[in-house]
Specification:
- The chain is an alpha+beta fold.
- It folds into three domains: 94 residues, Nucleic acid-binding proteins (OB fold (Dihydrolipoamide Acetyltransferase, E2P), Beta Barrel); 285 residues, Bira Bifunctional Protein, Domain 2 (BirA Bifunctional Protein, domain 2), CATH 3.30.930.10; 128 residues, Gyrase A, domain 2.
- 29% of the residues lie in helices and 24% in strands.
- The protein is built from 16 helices and 22 strands.
- A hairpin with a 2-residue loop joins strand 2 and strand 3.
- Helix 4 packs across helix 6, helix 4 crosses helix 15 and helix 5 packs parallel to helix 14.
- It is globular.
């Protein structure tokens, strides 16, 4: 029975038309001589009516059908009674009186209610993901994903970019996370890697003369359990030749604005604020700050030095930091609530504790207030603009723990105090990231982004003596506290690249083994180039109003990288292992 319309098409304009619809039974109601069915497809829902007086055979057959059975019907479009009109759906003014019925497929009872996505746990829904994808919520999110992809391709095409696919089977190169490795059957003992990103290939394309490249591409990282991360994810990958940082930031801004306008009809500002990395960390404790609300971090060192609180004084003497946050409604922060916040910061961010003082009648009281003389308290209240019934939280530790803990506390307080306007979009560029960071465990410098990121040429004089002070030409675009994407201007000079390899402890032989093909290509005339990559899944998540990326990926994995639907990863046969020249080792060996 070929459909003439979808289940979201019909309205009062179609009255008296004979139509055919196909879909799934979403609801079923037996009212004696009438039987009502809500017929659903991805376009919407239409109420169809089986009347015993019009077609007794169809009427008797439908009574035996259950939810999620797949049927086709032919019938006449009629008006609903005035008191039965449903103004919440496009088809709410009409019914279809059935004259003919065909049953394509009967369903066993579904494992959860398709009309109520929250009727089952997430793990249960992931096991039956193909059924969860029938829910209106997920179908709408998949359509948002489709629209975002189309908007991206349209924008990049108009900007004269060429979409070029890069290999999925590639050479394993150190790029930060652990590679997924693919054993070669033909070349025993050797392995491909799945790309963490197309970084080296996109740079090779610049050498090849494709000055404007992009692709929407799958990437893979074999990471330990991390919340809201997937072992395979999608990014919008971009690279350009003969550009500087401002050019890339403008393109990234324009692309973001185009996607938001095309998909959800939101006008973002023509230019996004730009903040350097140091300022972002000092003010918000994060390189991806949510700037929709205030609650900025406050420097507390000068007040601690004038206090008798030796725990924080010791932190400062050891080179650590003490910073704080001022929050209103101190009366709502009982000792029980403060203890809960303290435990949260200890468990997830390694903080040793959470100090506090409340402002009452123009004075600081409670917590560690007794260690601060009246004159110092007065300065704190005045300089930090602390009002009565406010509470000052403080954390002292090494800089990484202080920033991580207070950044998390800032968000927690904002949620408790309803400070976040969920209708607001607050984009931001963060620039001037450090080129390298010190790896305590391995006693070496690591690239903050990747080894091809160009240092800021203004800082080259300190590259050898003080690498930690060198800024990179790296940048991230942030939206509402989420990193949408990031990139950098790349190194195109082989001598500078060699200096960076040396700084990172990558010797000539290792550099040749890992990156020789790229370095060889640079000998043939590499243009200045740079680019960025957007996290496509995260963009769609924000556009769809979701809070986890699993909602916008058709067949996602769990946090522990399992597919509950097809039980992968799964064992393979001994014969398959032998073909790949592999042998499994016992866990105890």
């Amino acid at each position: 029975m070929k459909r003439t319309h979808t289940c979201g098409d019909l309205s009062a304009l179609n009255l008296d038309n004979e139509v055919s619809l196909n879909g799934w039974i979403s609801k079923s109601r037996d009212l004696g001589g009438l039987h009502f069915i809500d017929l659903r497809d991805r376009y919407g829902v239409t109420q169809i009516v089986f009347n015993e007086d019009i077609n007794e055979d169809a009427f008797q057959r439908v009574k035996k059908l259950g939810l999620e059975d797949v049927i086709g019907i032919t019938g006449k479009v009629v008006s609903r009674p005035a008191d039965a009109v449903n103004k919440n759906i496009p088809t709410g003014e009409i019914d279809v009186e059935v004259t003919d019925l065909i049953v394509y497929n009967e369903s066993v009872p579904p494992p959860f209610d398709i009309n109520d996505r929250n009727s089952a746990s997430e793990d249960h829904r992931l096991k039956y993901r193909y059924l969860e994808l029938r829910t209106r919520d997920l179908q709408e999110k998949m359509i948002v994903r489709h629209k975002a992809a189309i908007a991206t391709r349209n924008f990049m095409n108009e900007a004269d970019f060429v979409e070029i696919e890069t290999p999925v089977l590639m050479k394993s190169t150190p790029e930060g996370a652990r590679d997924f490795l693919v054993p070669s059957r033909i070349h025993g003992g050797k392995f491909y890697a799945l790309p963490q990103s197309p970084q080296t290939y996109k740079q090779l394309l610049m050498v090849s003369g494709f000055d404007k490249y992009f692709q929407i591409v799958k990437c893979f990282r074999d990471e330990d359990f991390r919340a809201d991360r997937q072992p395979e994810f999608t990014q919008i990958d971009i690279e350009m030749s003969f550009v500087d940082q401002d050019d890339v930031l403008k393109l990234g801004t324009d692309l973001t604005r185009h996607i938001w306008k095309s998909v959800i009809n939101v006008e973002l500002p023509e230019s996004f604020p730009i903040m350097n990395y140091h300022e972002a960390m000092e003010r918000y404790g994060s390189d991806k700050p949510d700037i929709r609300f205030d609650l900025e971090l406050q420097e507390m060192a000068e007040y601690v030095e004038q206090s008798d609180f030796n725990a924080f004084k010791s932190v400062l003497e050891a080179g650590g930091r003490v910073k704080g946050i001022v929050c209103q409604n101190a009366s709502t922060y009982s000792r029980k609530v403060i203890d809960e916040l303290t435990d949260y910061l200890k468990k997830y961010f390694g903080a040793k504790g959470l100090a506090w003082m409340k402002c009452t009648d123009g004075k600081l009281d409670g917590g560690i207030s007794k260690f601060f003389p009246d004159s110092v308290q007065a300065d704190i209240i005045s300089n930090l603009n602390i009002a009565d019934d406010s509470i000052l939280f403080m954390v002292g530790d090494n800089a990484n723990i202080v920033f991580a803990a207070l950044s998390a506390l800032r968000l927690e307080l904002a949620n408790r105090e309803n400070l976040i306007d969920s209708t607001k979009w607050a984009p931001l560029w963060v620039v001037d990231f450090p080129l390298v960071e010190w790896n305590e465990d391995k006693n070496r410098w690591d690239a903050l982004h990747h080894p091809f990121t160009s240092p800021n040429l203004e800082d080259l004089a300190t590259l050898d003596d003080d690498p930690g002070s060198v800024r990179s030409l790296g940048y991230d675009v942030v939206m509402n506290g989420y990193e949408l994407g990031g990139g950098s201007i790349r190194i195109h000079d082989k001598d500078l690249q060699s200096r960076i390899f040396t700084l990172l402890g990558i010797g000539k032989e290792e550099a040749q083994e890992k990156f020789g093909f790229l370095m060889d290509a640079f000998k043939y005339g590499a243009p200045p180039h740079g680019g960025m990559a957007f996290g496509f899944d995260r963009i769609v998540m924000l556009l769809a109003g979701s809070n986890q990326i699993r909602d916008v990926i058709a067949f996602p994995k769990t946090t522990s990288a399992l597919s509950l639907m097809d039980n992968s990863p799964s064992p393979v046969t001994k014969e398959q292992l032998e073909e790949l020249h592999l042998e499994l080792r016992d866990d105890d060996s």
